[in-house]
Amino acid sequence: MSCSDEYFSHSTGEDDDLIQITPAVKEKLRKAKYGVYNHSAVELCHWTKKSFANEGTCYKHKFYGISTHQCMEMTPTAMNCENRCVYCWRPAEFYDTLEMPEQMVDEPEVIVQNLMAERKKLINGFYGRSKNDKAKLDESLLPAHYAISLSGEPTMYPKLPQLIKYLKTLKATKSIFLVTNGQEPDMLRRLESEDALPTQIYLSTNASNKKMFLQVNRPRHRDAWERWQDSLRFLSTVDTRTVLRMTMIRGYNDGADDIEDFARVMSEGDPHFIEIKSYMHVGMSTQRLKRDNMLGMDEVRAYAGRLCEKMPAFSVMDESEVSRIVVLQNKSRYVDRWIKSYL
């Protein structure tokens, strides 16, 4: 039986024949504290939970001002992705479809309303803990920030422009971040042409050449490297905040000999920010990589410094030691690091 048969089914309801995660996999996801609706999912991340108890915030707050406890991390493509990245802590081995026909997916409003309900169920469990801040929990029920990432590749969702435009209409919305692997450059262009750009676009940038790209990202498309380069060029001109995110993996893409090539690639993308982060040995990635594949914070700092030497337009903006990440800022294509809606 193929993974697509095992992990996906189609609704037999009266209204539509929609893509769904099978009940067995849905149950596994729910045990892992996901909220699931058909092909979409939501989760409360580690930092959101900590923020409820005033025990810390994620680096998105430190770097850009995002309200951690009001962040809704969600995806319209929970089990759909074109890559099988070696470092992914999600169940990439379960992804086995490269198509999401428009007539077989949920409408954006349906996704958001149902994931909101699932997220509320997850949050309700935190009210009974005395250490949690009730005011923050109340505020968290109306997200100010949407991180469209979580699992799978969101640009595969054929109604992504409508989803982002719908999120913008919600009264509490202050920002929307989209994370992409760059395999759907046409969808990125649709976001621009349909006036549906998010506040910030992240492009995963984990390779400086095609051979490395295939080794790290394990793509399913034969022209995956070319697709990614197309997305990189798009980021260099698009009129919204852009970030290249590099996940450093020891023995894969951290070589000193590759720094110049990475600098060339990143300069071509000309992003507003570059996030350089160590691979973390968690989740399903532990079945593919070893703990030794993680880099220490000093190594990440040193690599970031060497990149800046090759790219004079960039300088170190900030860092988060607990997350082993350094962020660089583009002085030539400058935007204020702080998102205005939070000021």
UniProtKB/TrEMBL annotation:
Gene3D superfamilies reported in the protein's UniProt record: Aldolase class I
Keywords assigned by UniProt, alphabetized: 4Fe-4S, Cytoplasm, Iron, Iron-sulfur, Lyase, Metal-binding, S-adenosyl-L-methionine, tRNA processing
A UniProt-annotated Pfam family: Radical_SAM
Entry's localization field: Cytoplasm
Positions of the Radical SAM core domain: 64-307
Biological process terms in GO annotation: tRNA processing
GO cellular component, one term: cytoplasm
Co-factor(s): [4Fe-4S] cluster
Keyword 4Fe-4S: yes
Binding site for [4Fe-4S] cluster 1: C45, C58, C71
Listed SUPFAM superfamilies: Radical SAM enzymes
Binding site for [4Fe-4S] cluster 2: C81, C85, C88
Cofactor remark: Binds 2 [4Fe-4S] clusters. Binds 1 [4Fe-4S] cluster coordinated with 3 cysteines and an exchangeable S-adenosyl-L-methionine.
Enzyme Commission identifier(s): 4.1.3.44
GO molecular function term, any single one: 4 iron, 4 sulfur cluster binding
Catalysed reactions, as listed in the record: N(1)-methylguanosine(37) in tRNA(Phe) + pyruvate + S-adenosyl-L-methionine = 4-demethylwyosine(37) in tRNA(Phe) + 5'-deoxyadenosine + L-methionine + CO2 + H2O
PANTHER family for this protein: S-ADENOSYL-L-METHIONINE-DEPENDENT TRNA 4-DEMETHYLWYOSINE SYNTHASE (PTHR13930), S-ADENOSYL-L-METHIONINE-DEPENDENT TRNA 4-DEMETHYLWYOSINE SYNTHASE TYW1-RELATED (PTHR13930:SF0)
UniProt family annotation: Belongs to the TYW1 family.
Chain's role: Component of the wyosine derivatives biosynthesis pathway that catalyzes the condensation of N-methylguanine with 2 carbon atoms from pyruvate to form the tricyclic 4-demethylwyosine (imG-14) on guanosine-37 of tRNA(Phe).
Entry-linked HAMAP family: TYW1_archaea (MF_01921)
NCBIfam families: rSAM_TYW1
Quaternary structure and partners: Monomer.
The protein's name in its UniProt record: S-adenosyl-L-methionine-dependent tRNA 4-demethylwyosine synthase
